[in-house]
Write a structure and sequence with these properties.
Blueprint (H helix, E strand, L loop, with lengths): L15 H16 L20 H6 L8 E9 L3 H7 L6 H19 L4 E11 L4 H18 L2 E9 L9 E12 L6 H4 L5 E8 L6 H10 L15 H5 L6 H10 L6 E4 L4 H7 L6 E6 L7 H8 L4 H7 L3 E8 L2 H13 L4 E9 L3 E5 L1
Parallel strand pairs: 2-3, 7-10
Antiparallel strand pairs: 1-4, 2-4, 5-8, 5-9, 6-8, 7-9
């Protein structure tokens, strides 16, 4: 009506021009991941056609044996920490993108499947191209380590539905493999097998809400020195994590027989190893077999119960594998160490009630 200001999408808080600028800032990183399996490199407007048979051709997987496996993961509350540290530690946002991608691909790799497609979703109230570019840069770096393609994504602006200035970062990974080579732990895990754990410190995108609560109670801000590390809270919490999918792929390429893979994320060792156990099998974990990072002791000193730390956090183990023999376990560790991963035998499978027992 005459005299009224026009009601526009931008006035409602959605800036399409900023979204287009974000996409242009992100595209150089996205295109670095593209391979011959992407059928339309110019960008199909509404989807991403990928030649699945072409991806699997190098492994000569017959179509009746070809399978895919998807996974999704979120950075949770970590992007808010990274945004607070943006002016002095922009690597935090790049590492956030890297870690979300590595987490999704590690989940896919647990089944012995090869990750090869990745998509992202970034939700915010204020579309900032420089922020989105930093996140996508990290995603692309993780993807290039695995020959994974970023084939699409979504930039969502949600004014009035999430807190002003905050970001939500989600990743989606898809892998392919052979049905007859799929790692089904309920069929493979038996009493007498060996558990190997790989060190990570603490997973950045798991337990961040608990850590932030402890930091607040201790009066620690994002710029303050974090007592367990001697670095700022930002540098300590927003660091890059191992890309475990790379390790699993190398082990399988060497012909190793893996009974089970466990990505130790939310739920800690008991939940993540426990979900791989068939009836009649119990995992016995000896926590003296690896050095638990001082970070976890500090959390306990600040009031987190030991049982809560064990049940909710990884206690320094980011990935665990079960092998049928000591010999296979040693081979697996040797391959992992050549790639820069470190690990140790941390337990065994015994006959007993299904579950995980952590010896302290």
């Amino acid at each position: 009506m005459e005299g009224r200001e026009p009601i526009t999408y931008a006035g409602a808080g959605v800036d399409i021009d900023a979204a287009n600028r974000s996409l242009q800032a992100m595209l150089p990183f996205i295109k670095q991941t593209h391979g011959r399996h992407l059928m339309d490199r110019a960008g199909q407007p509404f989807s991403a056609p990928v030649a699945l048979g072409l991806a699997a051709a190098g492994e000569r997987i017959p179509i009746e044996q070809l399978m895919i496996a998807p996974s999704v993961d979120s950075a949770g509350t970590i992007p808010q920490e990274a945004l607070l540290a943006l002016d002095f530690f922009p690597e935090g946002l790049t590492n956030t993108g890297y870690n979300v991608t590595a987490h999704c691909c590690a989940d896919v790799a647990c089944g012995g499947v090869t990750p090869f497609i990745f998509l992202d979703m970034i939700t915010s109230t204020d579309m900032r191209p420089e922020i989105n570019a930093l996140i996508i840069q990290g995603m692309a770096e993780a993807c290039k380590e695995l020959a994974v393609m970023i084939v699409g994504g979504e930039l969502a602006q949600c004014p009035g539905t999430i807190v002003e200035g905050q970001y939500d970062v989600i990743g989606f990974a898809i892998g392919y493999g052979r049905r007859d080579a799929y790692i089904n732990p309920k069929e493979r895990v038996k009493p007498g097998q060996v558990i190997v754990g790989y060190h990570v410190g603490f997973h950045m995108i798991n337990g961040s809400s608990l850590i932030r609560r402890v930091n607040a109670a201790a009066g620690l801000g994002i710029r303050d020195i974090f007592p367990p590390t001697g670095k700022t809270v930002a540098e300590s919490l927003l660091r890059r994590q191992p890309n475990f999918a790379k390790m699993v792929g190398a082990q399988l390429a060497k012909g190793l027989y893996i009974s089970a893979n466990s990505h130790i994320t939310g739920g800690g060792l008991p939940d993540n190893i426990g979900r791989n156990l068939p009836e009649g099998c119990q995992a016995v974990i000896d926590s003296t077999k690896w050095e638990i990072p001082p970070f976890f002791g500090w959390l306990i000193e600040q009031g987190v119960p030991l049982e809560e730390a064990i049940a909710r956090l990884n206690m320094g183990i980011g990935f665990a594998q079960i092998y049928p023999t000591e010999h296979e376990a040693r081979r697996a560790l040797a391959i992992a160490e050549q790639l820069g991963f470190s690990g140790a035998k941390i337990g065994e499978i015994v006959a007993g009630e299904r579950g995980v027992k952590v010896l302290r």
